[in-house]
Amino acid sequence: MNRIRAIALIGLLGFSSGLPLALSGFTLRLWLARANLPLEAIGFTANLGIAYSLKFLWAPALDQFRPPRPFRALGRRRGWLLPIQLCLAAAVLALALTRPAHALAATLLAGGLVAFLSASQDIMIDTWRIEFFPQHLQGAATAGYVWGYRAAMLISGSGVIALSTVTGWHLAILAMVPLQLVGAAATLACAEPAPPPARGPVSIGARFREAVIAPLADFLSREGAWIILAFVILFRLGEALAGVMLAPYYTHLGFDRATIAIANGPPSLVAVLAGTALGGVAVARLGVGRALLTAGAFQTLTLILYPLLGLYPHLPHILLATSVAESFAEGIADAAFITYLSGLCTKAYTATQYALLSSVAALALRTIGGFSGVLAHAMGWLPFYEFTVISALPAMAVMLYILRRYPPAPAALAAE
Length: 416
Hints:
Elements: H1 3-23, H2 26-34, H3 39-43, H4 50-54, H5 59-64, H6 78-97, H7 104-132, H8 138-167, H9 169-174, H10 176-180, H11 182-189, H12 204-220, H13 225-234, H14 237-244, H15 246-252, H16 257-263, H17 266-286, H18 288-302, H19 305-309, H20 316-343, H21 350-361, H22 363-366, H23 372-379, H24 381-391, H25 393-405
């Protein structure tokens, strides 16, 4: 397959991967906030995405079992990817047809199904990318995937929110169904990767031990493993608590949907890409440890902008500045944190250990983040956002201890 065509296809698959993330996240929470649903219910939508953190549990099954019979002609990877994508489009359709103000359970069920199928799609897209592209093109393939992913998040986030001001929520989300099918078209246009060498029958239990237990045991056997895991979980705690409540917070402050869409639209996308680039430069110039410390401190400082925003409601330029600054900090933190996680991986288990660590990193958002609505309702908005700043401090303290006792290796990957 032509190299440019292959990069374009992984970009389209990245688009398919990014589209459902905002639909089951920020966009869904703003929809619920506009329906005047309780903060507790809105907060617990964060738990819908637990599938993204636990997808490694059923990944071996997708690898072990043959695809459904009608799709087997497509091969081992595309034969699973296509039916998952078709089901995902159907789940987005179901979400669009729900009425959260009258049947919240149905909306949450559809949102949870979107998240589960989205996580399953991610498994197969990552597998296809790793197996299809040769090593020297993996960087270009990842870049194409990320650009498609970010573009889709912009559309299913700010795009849907802006469109809902004209068409209403149902039609705005319904418009995402044909866009979700872009990934299915890309899958049909892709070539199937060459199958790996035959290994003979392997049980799911054996595959699970090989894919999950062995890499986890290897990681936990090293010195300082548990406190490093604690840091990985805590690093995004403040951001997780703050981010889940942004949609109802913006609504409480009186910002309309068009203003929210603009603030979270192209300016924030440019900011996060610029932050990621600067974070990469910081890692190269300062080293992983100091770059991570700088990124963590900057990320914590940007959380202060949220309680300050509460002092200046109805001012769109303050909202825009807050959103851009937070996105910039997110990009810097992502670059440093991803590099740090990569450096924790043993070469023999790089892919699996990184998948496990990135899943653990999202646990704060997918678990504790669900209680943000309870906290915001009990504390009030300004005290709640002041608390999110405080909740980011334990990670900074643990980070200082780790960088002193267990500094990251200078190379991108840990020792073999």
